[in-house]
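In this section we walk through a basic example: taking a raw amino acid sequence and producing a predicted 3D structure, encoded as discrete structure tokens. The instruction is simple. Fold the sequence below.
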Amino acid sequence: TVEGLKLTTKVYYDFTLEGATLELTAFYAVPMKDIGSELDFTATYGTYKWKEFANDTTPAVKAWGDYWLVGVSMPFQISKEAKLTVGLAYTEGTEAFTKAGNLGKSVNSLAVGRGVATVSYSYSF
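The resulting token sequence is shown next.
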């Protein structure tokens, strides 16, 4: 964490897809003391390369690409035990392809941009 900006790296390997994913996430919270909350800003960039994208195919289908996300959320403490969080984000896949064997690569049609709205409720006891 530097000047309130928290950077997190993540590296993981999926044994089913047989490939690695690498991510870098940045997080920054802006206090909103007048209303007893904060605005939480998040940005993520990731890249992946998988050898077994589709189950039980011969030849194997590979997939690779990049993705990013930017979002903002605001938590509201309802009681000592309960919290409600609302958020908005936009995410998009880029340079995403699939390839089977020696065939040419194809654009991964699932890697598109989307807006996401979230509402979450948590209760701790």
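Looking at the output, two observations stand out. The beta strands are 6-14, 19-32, 37-50, 61-77, 82-100, 106-107, 114-123. The first strand starts at residue 6 and ends at 14. In the next section we compare this with other chains.
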